[in-house]
Structures are given as structure tokens and as C-alpha cells.
Design goal:
- The chain is α+β, with helices and mostly antiparallel strands.
- Among the domains are: 103 residues, Beta Barrel (OB fold (Dihydrolipoamide Acetyltransferase, E2P)), CATH 2.40.50.140; 90 residues, no CATH class.
- Helix content is 58%, strand content 12%.
- The strands form two sheets. Strands 1, 2, 3, 4, 5, 6 and 7 form a seven-stranded mixed beta sheet that branches. A two-stranded antiparallel sheet has the order 8-9.
- A hairpin with an 8-residue loop joins strand 3 and strand 4.
- Helix 11 packs antiparallel against helix 12 and helix 14 packs antiparallel against helix 16.
- The longest helix is centred in the C-terminal third of the chain and has 27 residues.
- It starts with a helix and ends with a strand.
Amino acid sequence: MKNRGGLFLFFCLGLIAGVALFSWHEHTASPQTIDYYIGQKVSFYGEIISEPTVKGKTVEVDVEVLQFSNKNQVEGKVRLRTTPWPRLAYGDKVLVVCQPEKPENSEFNYQRYLARYGIYALCFRAEVEKLGEGGGNPIKYKLFALKNYAKHVLERHIGEPESSLIAPVLFGGGDEIGDEILNNFRRTGLTHIMAVSGFNVAILAAGLGYVFFLCGLRRKLVFILSAAATAAYVILVGAPPSAVRAGIMSIIVIYALAIGRLARLLNIVIITAAATLIFNPRLLAADIGWQLSFAAVLGLMYLHPIIKKGLDKILPKRLNMLGDIVAATLAAQLSTTPISLYHFGQVSLISPLANILVVWTIPFLTAASAIALPLAAVIPAIGDILFLPSFIIAKYIIFIVQILANISWSSVNF
């Protein structure tokens, strides 16, 4: 009884703290914020705080306002859409002339989506003059430069659309892939593979930890090096919710091993969710990726054993591995479908089959591409040969997705 009372008290305190924290993050427009000037033509100096995203013949970037040209003390973030020239990059200083607009909602709550980044104004017809480069966080600047070079190596040896599939699997993003192929991935419920998955991060952390142990390093040093590499990779890929979640969970597991203790998975999930929400409480309501990521993990924890037990009664023992894949696919699908239905109004009926045929290839695609990249950068003459396994796997994925997406009943819209 005392334990229940303590848990209830802990829950109430957490709820009160959460409401207070969320209220503290509430935004109100004022003459000191950029969204106060929506509908007015303004000019300001700013710094690019995101990687540029190519959308057709335009580029989108997020800019932190540093100073209004009229010397008013104004702050805030703006999402810009401008021409590809001049070429912009993270950390560049820019002069912007535009008429801020309010984000509009249609079938998707765009306002709430941008609010998680602290963005409340758009400048989709902005005039941008580049004033300098090399600003921002120096670590992020170096990591983004490394990623751009790696993408260049990849594109040099693999054509489209295969390179546009491999790049987001390794580095995140995925906006460069064609609309037709992207729609096919949506209809088959496979858009999640065109992003850095938590599985990739977990494999990196576990692999590095194993290598460091083999090198004879002490446990604490293994933890420090593995945690640093995991954090760097999460930043490198743009810190999507799935990667952040997996990064924090992996670091906690590595720390538990370093101090010689076992870690309960549910406790890790709770700590990870709390840690991300403390830094940004808007993720809970506004970040679909965050919701899907944790829903999938909970589905794998609680639904997978139930489904697997049922399949074991039906399938012969020689198909045990297939049953495990099917159970994991169905568990993740069932746990995330309500969220997808709520936000997108679409359910993929072909998704279980598509996931069974495709998802198993992602670790091989990741490993083959990760091995080929550094070798192709050093020996470009044999880059095409090195990337051949990656090309074949990507070709297979796109082929399967195209066939399944063309089935008339592959998805249902509500």
C-alpha cells in the first residue's frame, strides 16, 4: 500500500511539473519576437541554424534572427524558402528581406510541427544575401561538412533514385527523393526506412563498444568513447526522434554495462522519454516521429511476445526466424497505426507484407554502404565496384515498393 501511495505521489508531482514546464514553453507574440511582424516587409541579419533542404527548385533553411536592420531588439527563428543560389550552409551569416507569414494548417498541423523547433513565422519568398560562413556550433559545422562530403561520394558512384534512398538510411533527411517514389513508400507503409532508424544507432553503439572491448580498453573508457561516437552520429544525422531515442537508450545500456549492472528496458524507455521531454516538452504533442518511435518500442516490448507465441503454435520450427520477423513487424504496425491514422488519415493494408519483404535488407544496406563509403573516398577508381552490393539492395527495395504500391487496395484513406 505504501508503495502504491509513493507511486501515486510521484505521478502527481511529475504531472504538475510537466504541466508547468509545458506552460513555460508557451509562446506569445510581442514586438520583441519576429512573428509579431507577420504581414509586414522586414529585413534582418541572421544565422542559419539548420542544414539546407532542397525542395524542387527551392531551398528551405531555418534562420535565427540576430538583429533587425532598424536596430530593434527582435529575436526568434524563421523558416526560409529561397533560391538555390547563393549556396547556403549551416552557420552562414545572411541578410534577409521578406514578409513573414503565419504557418497555415491543412490536413497536417504545420503550426504545431514548427512550434517544436520554436518557429512561428515563415518567409517563403525571401531575398537572401550571404554575408559570411563558418559560424554556428563548430562540432556541428564539422560533422555536417563531413556528411555533405560523404553524400557527394555516394552520389558520384550510385545514380538516382538509389542514392536518394541510401543517403537518408545512413544520414537522415530523405527530401531529395522523387515524389512518385515517396508516395509509393507511403502507400506501402515503408517511409520509416528512409530515415536513420533507432536500429542503426543501436548497431553503431553496440559495434563500437564491442570493438573497444576487444582492444582491451577499460570499461569506463569504452563507455566514454562509445557515448561520444553515438552522440556525434545522432548530431550528424540531424537528431531525428528515433535516433535521439536510440542514442540515449544505447548510452544508458553501455553505462550500465560499464558499471557492471543490468538495465531494465522499461526503465530505460521511461528515462529516455522523460529526458527528451524535459529539454523539449512540445515533442509529446507535436512531434509525430517521437510518438511513432516510442509507440514502436512499446509495441515490440509488449505485443511482440504475444504475437510470437501465437505464431509458434501455427508455424513449424524451421520457420522460427520468419515468425520472429512477422511478429516484430505486426507488433510495430499495430502499435503505430492509431497514431498514423490520426495524423495522416491513411492506413497501409500492404504494410505487413512490405515490411517482411524489405526491412530485413536495411541492416545489410547500412553495413554495405558504411563499408564502401570510406574505401570509395580513398580509392575512387573502384568506387562503383565497392558500392555494387548497396546498389543491388536499393534496387531490390525500390522494385518491391513499386510493385506493392500499384496494388489497388494497398492503402485506405479516411
